[in-house]
Amino acid sequence: MNSKERVITALRRSGVPDRVPVQFDLCRPLLQGFSQKYGIPIKMSPSYYEDLTYRTSANDLRTAMGSDCVLVGGGLPAGYSHPSTADGSIINEFGMTMRQGLYYMDVIKCPFDAITSPAEVQAFNFPDPYAPGRFETAARDIETYKNDYFVIGDVELTMFEMAWHMVGLEKFMIDMASREAYIEPLLDKTMEFTIGIAKQLASLGVDGLWFGDDFGAQNGMMISPKMWRTIFKPRFAEVFQEVRSVNPNVLVMYHCDGAISPILNDLIEIGLDVFNPVQPNVPGHEPQELKTKFGDQLSFWGAIDQQYLLPRGTAEEIEQDVAEKIRILGAGGGYLCSPAHILQADTSLENIETFLGAVRKFGTY
Predict the structure, then answer these.
(1) pLDDT in tens, 96-111
(2) With DSSP H G I counted as helix, E B as strand and the rest as coil, what are the percentages for the chain, rounded to 5?
(3) CB 103: neighbour CB atoms within 10 A?
């Protein structure tokens, strides 16, 4: 099997692949480190939301390291560059002022930090998902890799996260609980942008579309399942339906950090195919329980701990965990092995190579 066949067989649960497929994302310092080690220059692919850049860049480097997947996404319009402030911050297309933090680009000023009415949403100039040039890099990478690798279209910050980044998390959560009138129009605007991006990626020929909004924390959901079902479930159902109107065969993949097992049945009901990142060590995410309850309806992508294990674990501990996750989640297929998030600079090149070696060592069926 080549990589594309391997991932499709695993995630569609249409049989047993020759081995468990693997995927991983790297922050800029790790990309630079492996670039020097492998002698492969980094090709950065700027995104409409800056931290997605690390998901969709350096596909040539990551495939050389063993990834079975490449990632593409919406970029910036032709001729567009972010305005910058005197202190070196940028202002992105959504009006967020952002500055490089320790790990990610941090939003330091929200365009709607004092919003009170739907009229302000309607008056705001949201970016155009169909702007010319936005998919030049994605189209190039899809054409390069489509025959040999599984191509994922990244559409994270689907609606909830994009909306609260425009408002500020505390205000957005309080206003959502208070049923402020602007909340749902703002979510509709962010959803509309996402649908535009996703439908274009689907038409370009991606194999899977990766949506994502983090509703989970370490101990449970950030909002109640009831609130999620009332506000978000119908919108995610619409998103999934819209992309399948373009390509009925595209795999719907969904990223949600934290403990979200209470809504997995709901996501399956509205068309989810692949759950990511299967964050370990949180309630309801025990691998055997997930596989037993959902393994005939859902495939899993992730599950390798990047909070403690990969940065601090020994080679033996990493190998043991990878072998255990493959044994459980990979039984009969249905598993794409991956760290549960972007690997950060606290993880050594050696530990990442140990992880990749462990997937090859223990992943053969």
Answers:
(1) 999 988 778 899 999 9
(2) 45, 15, 40
(3) 12
